[in-house]
């Protein structure tokens, strides 16, 4: 068997990149499967996560301008080169399976490149809000665009979704549900005695860090000795807005924007609570990793991921989406009660075992094999 994973880049920290690194390392080390990664704009950068030398890299060098729309002339003119360069590379590798990880303009033409090869399109974000927009859409042009996307999706052999909750938002009968596997299950866990809460992710408005800051303002009044650390890189304008918000609230000594880290596990081991303030998530890796490290989590019950990972009041606390006061109260509850933190820590470690790599990757392997024999 020969597998190709296709994405735009692997040099920026993010959940897709982390999951992809874990998967390719598993295939080459645990199953001895020849595995390739094709990128369209790696730009000579090394991968941000460790990837085994046995994984074979290819970069197409298309290099779209990410600040512009794909339909902008500067980008659209590159589409023919993209199509033919990708087709040539796939012919050269001759894989049995292609897994498409990202979502970009190439979504529209990949199904038509060597149709005999099984192509699986992964979706890593929730369509909850998009579906609301679709149902309320009045624009004929937008309606046609939704229909076009439905048609293209039907041309992939499979659409891989992360949760059952997402299935109603897709309009073809080729969906499969496969969750993300754990990237780590450390032998040791956090001791839960640090006066620290952490959060991590791409620094972008969808992550709702502005609400986390508002919640921490409430927490800080009662627990001024506790700190909140936020890890990740992202949109500079949004990062500046968050820092200005922190400065305005005079919380500079209690909330720290730490930038990205290559060792989030180490940071989790030195914390006592994980906080997730996202407006929407699908199956966030950092939430899985926090439970594996023994960190109880507080999360907004946002569509559609956290409820599929956290069991409310068992290994974490789910809070009504957008309710900042309740979010602060949940953090305070765990800060005040070390016994509860330890109880949830133990339960989280037990519950997350269902997502150990062998359990999840065998689902993928069975799917791959079923197409080889069909």
UniProtKB/TrEMBL annotation:
Domain Glycosyl transferase family: 192-350
Pfam family, one: Glycos_transf_1
Database matches in InterPro entries: Glyco_trans_1
Keywords: Glycosyltransferase, Transferase
GO MF assignments: glycosyltransferase activity
Broadest EC class assigned to this enzyme: transferase
Known EC number: 2.4.-.-
CDD domains assigned to the protein according to its UniProt record, in alphabetical order: GT4_AmsD-like
Transmembrane segments: none
Keyword Glycosyltransferase in record: yes
UniProt name for this protein: Glycosyltransferase family 4 protein
